[in-house]
Design brief:
The chain has 2 helices and 7 strands; from the N terminus they run E-E-E-E-E-H-H-E-E. It starts with 5 loop residues before the first strand and ends with a strand. A 5-stranded mixed β-sheet has the order 1-4-5-6-7. It has a two-stranded antiparallel sheet with strand order 2-3.
Length: 90
Amino acid sequence: MMEGYTIKSNRESGLGRSDLLLLSAPYEGIAIIIEIKVAETYAQLEEKAKAALEQMEEKQYDAKLRLEGYRHFIKYGISFYKKLCRVLCK
């Protein structure tokens, strides 16, 4: 576990709910936002990971966090197909 971070699951943020949030102390201002998608085929891995990143932007998952003082965001779009995964970061 990341020392000094609080982990939140399915927290309401912006226009939706992110799958996972890892939040530093507010004075450090770092928030890691994770959105997870399941792919139905191996070929969909990239597409679903991109869709996860796009969803974070469209639904403004960082909006409420900005109001709470967070200024640095690391966003992960993760897709899974069976035991394989694809991770994209923004």
